[in-house]
Amino acid sequence: MNKKGENTDWKQKLHEIIYEADTPMGKWFDIVLIFVILFSVLLIMLESVKQIDEEYHRTLLTLEWVVTILFTIEYIARIICIQKPFKYIFSFYGIIDFLSTIPLYLSYVLAGSQVLLAVRAFRLLRVFRILKLVRFLGEASQLKSALRASSAKITVFLFAVLILSVMLGTLMYLVEGDEAGFTSIPMSIYWTIVTLTTVGYGDIAPITPQGQFIATVIMLLGYGVIAVPTGMVTVEFGKRSRALKTGEDKVEKFVHVNTQACPSCSKEGHRDDASHCYNCGSLLNE
Amino acid sequence: MNKKGENTDWKQKLHEIIYEADTPMGKWFDIVLIFVILFSVLLIMLESVKQIDEEYHRTLLTLEWVVTILFTIEYIARIICIQKPFKYIFSFYGIIDFLSTIPLYLSYVLAGSQVLLAVRAFRLLRVFRILKLVRFLGEASQLKSALRASSAKITVFLFAVLILSVMLGTLMYLVEGDEAGFTSIPMSIYWTIVTLTTVGYGDIAPITPQGQFIATVIMLLGYGVIAVPTGMVTVEFGKRSRALKTGEDKVEKFVHVNTQACPSCSKEGHRDDASHCYNCGSLLNE
Amino acid sequence: MNKKGENTDWKQKLHEIIYEADTPMGKWFDIVLIFVILFSVLLIMLESVKQIDEEYHRTLLTLEWVVTILFTIEYIARIICIQKPFKYIFSFYGIIDFLSTIPLYLSYVLAGSQVLLAVRAFRLLRVFRILKLVRFLGEASQLKSALRASSAKITVFLFAVLILSVMLGTLMYLVEGDEAGFTSIPMSIYWTIVTLTTVGYGDIAPITPQGQFIATVIMLLGYGVIAVPTGMVTVEFGKRSRALKTGEDKVEKFVHVNTQACPSCSKEGHRDDASHCYNCGSLLNE
Amino acid sequence: MNKKGENTDWKQKLHEIIYEADTPMGKWFDIVLIFVILFSVLLIMLESVKQIDEEYHRTLLTLEWVVTILFTIEYIARIICIQKPFKYIFSFYGIIDFLSTIPLYLSYVLAGSQVLLAVRAFRLLRVFRILKLVRFLGEASQLKSALRASSAKITVFLFAVLILSVMLGTLMYLVEGDEAGFTSIPMSIYWTIVTLTTVGYGDIAPITPQGQFIATVIMLLGYGVIAVPTGMVTVEFGKRSRALKTGEDKVEKFVHVNTQACPSCSKEGHRDDASHCYNCGSLLNE
Question: Which residues in chain B are closer than 8 Å to C238, comparing Cβ atoms?
């Protein structure tokens, strides 16, 4: 083959390693990546603890540089080996990857830019992409489809809870007033949701008998109302479980997909027997 | 047609726009109304925050006048275009609409009447009337029917919880006494419900070993007792879900109704093929 | 009839009114009794509030005397019209009735005996006896039978939760120590149950990182563990619900009983067609 | 028989009493052991309460010696009567038993070693081993198998909750900062889990409007998210319950096992008709 063919070949292999998980190397890359991400998040956590940061500042900074360099290499490799790099750069993961990489470089130009390091927590979402590998266990996808199926009901329910909270919050604001901490209507609504969801911080609590009576009603409401989302999700799970057992009326059709990503648009979720990308139509690597 | 006919015609059109949602104009009216109501509620919230009110008092007052004038126009239009205006004026929504409109006018006559503005939060209930438009999704009505079906069980349950709270609250009052905040029996009952529903503010907490022991029992009770409403609602949802799937034994019959309101008594929920109001018998607009 | 017959006749009628609810008079007696009991409980609540007691002490005392005299009459009537009075006197309800009646009389002899008034809260349990009237709705009895059916499972579950609490509480005592409020192992166990049941007062909260880490694990445990009783009760309700619908395999047999009480042993729950008491065999009033 | 036979015979009988529960003596041993363990745990609890320890130090120490001597005898007996003592000594229960026995002896050599007494709480786990006696009720084993069946789903769910907590915790750290108690990212994550699980201590609570808004979202999330484990466990229980009723497709096969322990490796759970240990193959006592 000529030079260009070799070049493409080399890129194609890198693409397989970075974007896919069907080859041993691809699997290793994913596992190493997960650990580096977890380590980088742990690092940010430790840096945020004042005592640790003061004592081990040098070590933490060195490790931060190691992580940053690894992320930089990964980011550049991702851009090089994809056919349409701009699609990746401006994708959700592309932006997260970029923001996770630059803070340390920026810190020499812009003071306070190290705050951006916190964006790295979002890189944890990659774990879900790699969880894709084990989705044939059916658990995650079953969970997701059950939640999606009850999303309309959950929306109506959340809407009702919010209107209820506004009404009860306004009532409590009028009944309790400033003394007990109900300083404004938004504050009262915040308190109502804290009570309705049975969280109950206690930073604000009613002190008048009328306020305590209304609070009691709100608590009993919240106690009963929690039954609604639970009931809805349980029924959805039950449906899925029965469908799987009887095999007669599948709630959803599952198709066996692999972890290959399209080399030009990087869409994923192609069927095992696919030869072209279902999104942009370009030829898939075998 | 003669003058009167034209007049009626004009009123009828207004009625269709304001009270119904079958025409494009009617739909637009509903959507605009929702936004004005949401805006008016947001306005009251902002006014209740002291800092914001101090800084932007003039702007907020102006906007308040805009909302008040819009509500006044709507209120008058509602009275004009209905055949029996007193039925509307003394209906639940009529009173809410009136109370939401007058506070600003009243504030020039009566000091402190701006407190009435809070009634506006109840106008949010109109959102549910307009939700009616999407009820063919079946979600809201299914939710409602499941809750209604288990209402007898829930009443028995709430009653048992209340008696339990009175008994346990009285016990805690005797055991703990004033020091820990259990200053009276109603206060103790309030604390018992706070604990039983797992809200747990912590504004009052037992300090004697005996009190803490009883508190532990109450908590475990509350932890187990929450299973009861959840179980009841789940079973109801399950029944409905199965009925929808098999199609054999519908739990409730659904009939297709439109959003038309009777021009004389303003009852809603007429069947699509109805020609007379099912409530007062007057002829419906086509 | 002779004197004795008339006497018995009069007692029998009183028995029917007080102990049963099949005659209009009997129903009225029950309803009035419920209201007097509710009123007496309300009275104790008001007395326990210092400000109210100081201001209206005279009125409250007068009303307390009215209630006490009514209870005294009821108690004497109950003893007179029953054939075996000692069975009633030493029954659970007999003792509660007695303790609810005497405190005011005792207060002239014994200082501080007014504390006994709190026993009156237990008279509220009579409400359940009268609820018996509506149990043909099936709700209360269905609730009870579902809870009884899962009681074995719930016991195992509660036992596991308790052992877990002891172990985790001891661990937290060692990790946190006195500073954070974990002053003794029982205190730590109390805190563990407060956390595991998601009540979370906040009177005691971990302050060391290790303690907060263990607390996090306990919370997630509690969050997951609550699924267990909910799941058990839901399944029981579901079984009952299905059994009622299909009508094939009833979980429990319901027999139509009336509210008559045996005139000699005052056992209740006789079948409609019963002529003898199922407990002591004496003849029942028609 | 010769000396050695008698010796073995005696050991075998002791083994039956200590390790098994099929003979009356064996049952008695188990019951007494449970009470001694419960008593020893109660003793540690009382010792940890400062006031009680000061007043009754002598009595508590004497009782502690009684328990320690009983545990020592039990420990030695367990080692003597088993064929392969090292298997027991280095087993989980063996180590717990040892650590529960030595603290008092150690306290004469090593100061502060009394802290080890807390390990005794773990001896409560023996209760579960003895619960084995009643597992033919099927409750405990059904509970366990349902939890095991949904463990994959629960793992995915817990994983999602943890990633969500890290992301939301980091967000809150940036939004709230030191003033409100969000001093570091781990602290913020701790708070997020406290909120998401609806525990809500209130030791840390958001004070800025933005923080309170995010807190509201987290609470509603937690309120909805609790439906997921509940739904999963409920469906599992439902499956088991239906399988038991129809008898057609058992989810798990139950085999009747006895409480005999292998005399050489002390494995338990042998079938009633077993003559050899399923683990090490040695002959079982009849």
Answer: 231, 234-235, 238
